[in-house]
């Protein structure tokens, strides 16, 4: 198994956890996400769920090959919430994930050090309670060919266990296929060597 085409993410949203420090309550959650657009509705739903929370701080990371991330302190002192949460995302080595912590103030100020510790612990517990799975990084190709090549193409696809994402049968055949990143070069080469089959990367 080639490690470079594997990444870790969450199978499903985690059940909420509760971390307490000097009567302040920190509710931690972890969610799988596929784009930045997923973030806002989740945060809004947490604000409704924890309407007594003064802050809903979060961090997210997206991308399998290269990562983009954001950390949000939501009014807490600078870098006391979002970055400690993001540090746990890095520590667990997960991506395509959002970790959010809703804080209900308990009347005693924790100080910046106390906040960093509380948000870090809440994020850690949320990820510990999540189901972390491994997925493969895949490459997509489009194959265009005449009907006369159909048997040859389909036989190769079946032999190599290649996934067909979609197919279009008009005057010519067009298939969108997916292979693991580690098999990208040999797959392209295999179809390139077939006469009358056009191969294009579709990443």
Automatic annotation (TrEMBL):
Q: Which residues form a coiled coil?
A: none
Per the record, the domain of life is: Bacteria
Supply one GO BP term: regulation of translational initiation
Q: Tell me the Gene3D superfamilies matching this sequence.
A: Impact, N-terminal domain (3.30.230.30)
Q: Which segments constitute the Impact N-terminal domain?
A: 22-127
Quick one: a GO cellular component term?
A: cytoplasm
**InterPro entries recorded for this chain?**
Impact, Impact_N, Impact_N_sf, Ribosomal_Su5_D2-typ_SF
> Which family does the record assign?
Belongs to the IMPACT family.
Q: What is this protein called?
A: YigZ family protein
Q: Which organism is it from?
A: Flagellimonas aquimarina
């Amino acid at each position: 198994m080639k490690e470079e085409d594997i990444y870790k993410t969450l199978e499903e949203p985690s059940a909420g956890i509760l971390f307490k420090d000097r009567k302040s309550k920190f509710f931690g959650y972890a969610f799988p996400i596929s784009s930045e657009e997923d973030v806002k509705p989740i945060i809004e739903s947490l604000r409704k769920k924890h309407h007594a929370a003064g802050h809903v701080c979060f961090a997210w990371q997206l991308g399998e090959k290269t990562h983009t991330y954001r950390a949000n302190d939501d009014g807490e002192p600078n870098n006391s919430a979002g970055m400690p949460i993001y540090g746990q995302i890095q520590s667990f080595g997960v991506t395509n994930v959002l970790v959010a912590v809703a804080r209900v103030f308990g009347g005693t100020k924790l100080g910046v050090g106390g906040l960093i510790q509380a948000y870090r612990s809440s994020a850690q517990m949320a990820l510990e309670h999540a189901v972390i799975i491994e997925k493969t990084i895949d490459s997509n190709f489009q194959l265009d060919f005449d009907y006369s090549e159909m048997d040859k193409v389909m036989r190769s696809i079946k032999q190599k266990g290649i996934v067909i994402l979609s197919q279009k049968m008009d005057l010519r055949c067009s298939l969108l296929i997916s292979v693991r990143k580690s098999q990208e070069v040999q797959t392209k080469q295999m179809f390139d060597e077939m006469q009358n089959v056009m191969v294009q990367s579709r990443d």
